[in-house]
Amino acid sequence: MKLTILFGGASFEHEISIVSAITLKEKLSGFDLSFIFCDQDHTFYLVEPSKMKAIIFSKGDYKKMPKLSLSSGAFIQKSMFSSVNHNNTVLNLIHGADGEDGTIASLLDFFSINYIGPRTDASVFSYDKRYTKWLCEAKGIKSVDYEILNKNEHKDTSIDYPFIIKPARLGSSIGVSIVRDDSQLDYALDTGFEYDNSLLVEPFIEGVKEYNLAGYMADDELYYSIVEEPQKEEFLDFEKKYMDFSRSEQVLKADITQELEDKLKVNFEKIYKGLFEGALIRCDFFVVNGEVLLNEINPIPGSMANYLFKDFKKSIESLSNSLPNNKKVKTTYDYIHSISSAKGK
Amino acid sequence: MKLTILFGGASFEHEISIVSAITLKEKLSGFDLSFIFCDQDHTFYLVEPSKMKAIIFSKGDYKKMPKLSLSSGAFIQKSMFSSVNHNNTVLNLIHGADGEDGTIASLLDFFSINYIGPRTDASVFSYDKRYTKWLCEAKGIKSVDYEILNKNEHKDTSIDYPFIIKPARLGSSIGVSIVRDDSQLDYALDTGFEYDNSLLVEPFIEGVKEYNLAGYMADDELYYSIVEEPQKEEFLDFEKKYMDFSRSEQVLKADITQELEDKLKVNFEKIYKGLFEGALIRCDFFVVNGEVLLNEINPIPGSMANYLFKDFKKSIESLSNSLPNNKKVKTTYDYIHSISSAKGK
User: Fold this and answer.
1) What is the pLDDT of residues B96-117, one digit of tens each?
2) Are strands A221-228 and A280-288 parallel, antiparallel or unpaired?
3) Which residue from A minimizes the CA distance to B128?
4) pLDDT tens column, B281-332
5) What is this model's ipTM?
């Protein structure tokens, strides 16, 4: 099948998206793949599959490649006397800002380009951790307690040490700190506020069990990946965590009871249904005293969590055949006509 | 000052946006205005101010005007041998879908165009009435009780007659019904589900007092309009309600106590702060037994609620001088460099 991988973006996870795209090139071999790179200035480039190497981007060599612009139904490559339409279904693989905050979703929707990825509203609820909490509350999904600290507000948190501080709108451990006592607080706040004006404070739960589950909807049915118990460190720093983005080997199923697996799936379904249609997402859960808590939603997981699926190619293919369709609104001028005729003009 | 009014859009409120734009042309006379029309196919046209007449759009004459495309920092008008950049601050005046659902916000953000209007996340929370309820719950703002009905779910509501049925994602009374007994229910549901797969059911409160308050933030301070008690009918049908969009005469301040006015402002502030910066919004409140309930948020009110402001031009000018700035993310390749050097390539 034909598929265009859209990657890059102006975000702190820019290079991680490049790694993800290179991984998918391998995992989706056999597909008729094309690659579109969005650079930090929001210019789109068509990248030949054979040029999909990290160094092409880090050295800026991509700038010699054909530029693309957005038009109704396609990315367009214009040359002096002709233009070529690239109108495959797009897989939005831009992690972090642009890709996961609703911007790319809106762009592709506006230009009527079919895509795999979260829609605008789903993006808003997963990108900003404050809104993920609101989603949980509205849908009856449990999550870790939290408080919000805003820059320039000088409010103290009432959560006891140790706690974790996270920027509201960044994934990937960027700007995240564990704070164990007063002496660590100022530095953690400064670090967090460097990245966002709002921070979440959550109790740091020692020895928590963590489980990841991915899935997508096709033909009105949810398809789940295996459940993974990710490799556990106190918490992963950016580099370690992002080795994840180049993962391509299928992992082993976590050794958990059927009851717990079912609980994780029930929670996943509550999150996904009615909001994430069109996307393959990964939900990261904590389990504390047998209770399932949502930790975070990855609406565009690293290398699409390929390593959690038994038949990843088939998953992408069936998802791409079940993408939501925006009903085209037919505009009318009835009101203007009726006003004009009432006015006699 | 220079300002570009962006109007039209592929929505049920398309023609209402045209009426709004024509009204603003009059209300902002003295400004150096330009007009960009988005038609139902999402093509942009530059419309000469002298051509800003409803009939130009209803007859399709706009199609003879210059087409514009989006580029970094500007709408671009290309001709055979040259191109002109239109890079004024934009006032997003596209009501309903496209303009109020986050799509236009994302587009303008992506292309680094300054604009007056709700950002993507603010749009998502005001466009979908279900998410407005979540916002209220999270921010401690009271609103009318509600239940959600989804297409194909066959759930009955537990709310007593009379109640109101509204599509989750349409403003302007479109698809809205008051249901007084069983005999009216099926028709109301059919009407609602024609426009949306999710409907809100709310108790219909007889004789409720309604008050509208608009405002915006400039230089970190909130500026409020007068409070209006809108002309009351049981509820306004589309045509009556939309006479509103051509309103240009300043209205009289509602005859309410200072205490109630303060309560309305406190609620407005809770809604606006941290979410609607950059926009001039109108909040419509109900007052029931002295208690203030949010009815709805209009993030792009008809003709920008000009009739509620003492000095509308000055309001638009001060807002446009206080627009949020997207910090540009500087992407790096540190991670790729470190991996490459570890691999020795």
Assistant:
1) 999 999 999 999 999 999 999 9
2) unpaired
3) A121
4) 999 999 999 999 999 999 999 999 999 999 999 999 999 999 998 767 788 8
5) 0.94
- Residue A79 CA to residue A82 CA, distance in Å, equals 5
B111/A106 Cβ within 8 A = no
Delineate the domains of chain B, giving CATH numbers in brackets.
2-116 (3.40.50.20), 124-142+207-320 (3.30.470.20), 147-203 (3.30.1490.20)
Contact call for residues A60 and A18 (beta carbons, < 8 A): no
Residues 95-114 of B with CB under 8 A from A: 97-98, 101-103, 105-107, 109-112
Element (H, E) at B77: strand B74-78
Q: Which segments of chain A are extended strands (E)?
A: 2-8, 32-38, 44-47, 67-71, 74-78, 83-86, 90-92, 115-116, 147-150, 163-167, 177-179, 198-203, 209-218, 221-228, 280-288, 291-298
Written as six digits, the tokens of B323 are 């627009």
Q: Round to whole Å and give the CA distance between B265 and B224.
A: 8
Query: DSSP code of B297?
Result: E
For A111, the 3-state DSSP assignment is coil
Residue A194, both tokens: 């460097």
Cis omega (within 30 of 0) for bond into B324: no
Task: Tell me how crowded residue A334 is: count the other CB atoms within 10 A of its CB.
Answer: 12
Structure tokens at A211: 């489980």
Token digits of residue B126: 């005001």
| A 156-185 near B (Cβ less than 8 A) | none
What are residue B309's phi and psi, to 5 degrees?
-105, 140
Q: Across the A/B interface, how many CB contacts are shorter than 8 Å?
A: 163
CB B176 within 8 A of CB B228: no
Helix (H) or strand (E) holding B286: strand B281-288
Q: Does B252 touch chain A (CB under 8 A)?
A: no
